[in-house]
Amino acid sequence: MTTIRQRGIFLVGLAASAVVAAAAFAQPAKPPDVDAVLSHLDDLYRSKSSIARIEMIVTGARSMRTMRLKAWTRGEDDALIVVEAPAREEGTATLRVGPNLWNYLPRIARTIRVPPSMMLGSWMGTDFTNDDLVKESSLHKDFESRIDRRSDSPPGWWLTLTVKPGIVGRWARIEILISDDGWLPLQERHFDRKGRLARTMAFDEIRMLGGRRVPAHLVLAPTDVEGQRTEMRYLDLQFDARIPDDTFSLSRLERSRQ
Amino acid sequence: MATPLPTTWRIAWRNLWRNPRRTGLALAAIGLSVTLVLIYDGVLRWEAGWMVDTITGPMLGHVQAHAPEWRKTRAMEKTLRDVTKTVAALRADPGVAGVDARVYAPALAALGEEGFAIMVIGVDVAEAARPARLLQGVTTRIGTREVLMGNLLAAQMGVKPGDRIAVVGQGVDGSLANDLLTVRALISTPVDSVNRQALIMPIRDAQDLFAMSDEAHELVIYGRDVEQAKALAAGLQRLPALSGAEVLDWQAAQPGMYELVRLVEVMWVFILVLVFVAAAAGVANTALMSTFERTHEFGMLLALGTTPSRIVGMIVLESLALGATGALLGTALGSALVAWAYRTGIDYAALTGGGPTNLSAFGMNFSLVIYPWLTAVDIVRVVAAVMVTSLVASVWPALRAARLQPARALRE
Questions:
Q1: Per-residue pLDDT tens for B302-336?
Q2: Of B405, B399, B403, B410, whose CA–CA distance to B300 is shortest?
Q3: Is residue A24 domain-resident?
Q4: Which of B47, B98, B223, B392 is the most buried (most CB within 10 A)?
């Protein structure tokens, strides 16, 4: 009898505190629907198709390199990135079709498929990995997501994505800060399998590109190497442009360059 | 007591052969124990030297130098600079027998479209081709844009000598490094990871490919004597050419390997103890049996006026003579076997019925063809150990015989 009564009192207490907590949280704004936010983020720079010009600046302990890229995407699975500058690497291209990644190297006129064991390797000497190019779209599939907490400055919401059990990947948890106005990404934090913060992404320079308001600039910084970072800036972005079907094919990859 | 000793010797020797079968068995036991110990000694001599050579020769060196953080991060840009000057300074050091400067760069290699994760290792080819080094026995001249490939990697990629492969990696400045290279020959080294993953090229070519200047990730340094590695490391750390570099002896660089060598030694001591317990049991058994059955005789000798000390001396001498004869036979047999094995080598694989000829541990392939050898110390040590064992084993029976009451002993 006593246990039942105690549990009853406990439940009442719990309910009361939940009401208080809910009231406290509900104050600033109603949390957005998490699935809607994720779909929005997924689609932000991509739409049905996109063509972008991108400048990338890689800062390392010993050097700073600037690259100019042109990128085509179609749907969630196809992408082609071609290096336009510097001259030494001009024409070097990366093609993604589904889970496969190929690099085309004009200097030696060869196309090489990136093996699974190299997926965590650096992409073109940047802080992005090959995996980043492929995994981008699987956040929905591989992670359990929820709206975690309110951020006051800048005003927005923190999303927490926790990896689903049984999924093999580099990240155990990803935190994303989205803004109140337009659900734009402001910050991302990637935590590795040991729960350590492994890298951060900061988004800024929000402006109109291809008819959308998006952050034009992002800085990716691994936390374990001091002074190391990769900056990426969209110079130009077109959405839903007509892209020839054979853009995302190996034969085109080899034919069009050189 | 001055003259009787040779007599006691003679009597002891004759007593020993009053039961030739038992003495023969005891001699066989002692002799075989000594033979076994000498063979183990010989194998240990080979192992201690050869195992350390196998571990240090191809990959580790006796001492290594790196840029401070390289071992932890393996980042391309953590290099030692002015390598040519540093290597020259090291070679001028009287304690240094050789220096191999190396570049390690992860890369992607492809024969066709399929890429494979590999490790490009740039080495000083002349240095690495010396005996017991990484490229021992490789006489192929490596021309420009030519490489050697690990045989297991080649099998995985389907590469044959003469094939042209694409190699793609990242230069030390982050730029794209890519080239077409001809596989000149396939190599099989004692280092598993090299056979499985490596592409080996002259360090100058590796530096060019990966946009490096006169720099290297690792200096592999060989001293005159591997036993002195620790002292050599400490000495080299003080050289101005290596100031700021991390200088480690092989034991500090690869504690796991060092533990492996130590483990083998400890196991050997264990076997040695077992063998000696067996030998001691043989001697003690013979001594005890022969004194018990001669109680009547000792009573007679005592009654005739033989001093108890002379009886003690006789029994101890019997035991020592037994031990010495056994040790002599064992030494002769053991040394002969070791000498023979040293000349021909023992193929462990053949002994175990065609198993592998290599033992793989910690990513190293240890040859299982054994060339044991001995020094005088090993023989002196084992003979001394047998004599001490014989002496100790005879003490109790001797004292028992000395304390016999002649009258009571005679009645037995």
A1: 888 888 888 888 889 988 999 999 999 999 999 99
A2: B410
A3: no
A4: B223
Q: How far apart are the first and last CA of chain A?
A: 85
pLDDT digit string, tens, across residues B35-85: 988 888 888 878 777 778 877 888 889 999 999 988 888 888 889 999 999
Q: What residues have CB less than 8 Å from B26, skipping those under 6 apart? A: B282, B283, B285, B286, B322, B326
Nearest to B319 by CA among B34, B26, B33: B26
CA distance B62 to B100: 11
Q: Are B327 and B382 in contact (CB under 8 A)?
A: yes
Q: B408 pLDDT band (50/70/90 cuts)?
A: confident
Q: Which residues contact A82 (CB under 8 A, 6 or more apart)?
A: A69, A70, A71, A91, A92, A93, A257
- Report which of B370, B373, B333 is spatially closest to residue B350, judged by C-alpha positions: B370
Chosen from B153, B175, B209 to mutate, greatest number of chain A CBs within 10 A = B175
- ipTM of the prediction: 0.75
| CB within 8 Å: A118 and B174 | no
Q: Rounded to two decimals, what is the model's pTM?
A: 0.72
Helix (H) or strand (E) holding A72: strand A64-74
Residue A131 falls inside a structural domain: yes
Residue A136 lies in a domain: yes
Range of the domain at A101: 34-256
CATH number for the domain that contains residue A242 = 2.50.20.10
**Cα(first)–Cα(last) distance of chain B, in Å?**
29
Q: Which residue numbers of B have CB closer than 8 Å to A's CBs?
A: 73, 75, 77, 106, 108, 110, 113-117, 166, 168, 170-176, 178-180
For chain A, how many structural domains are there in total?
1
Q: Is residue A162 part of a domain?
A: yes
Q: How far apart are CA A45 and CA A145, in angstroms?
A: 20
Residue B108 distance to chain A (closest CA, Å): 8
Are B338 and B361 a contacting pair, CB within 8 Å?
no
**What is the DSSP pairing of strand B176-187 with strand B146-150?**
parallel
- CB pair distance less than 8 Å for B166 and A108: yes
φ, ψ for residue B63, nearest 5 deg: -140, 145
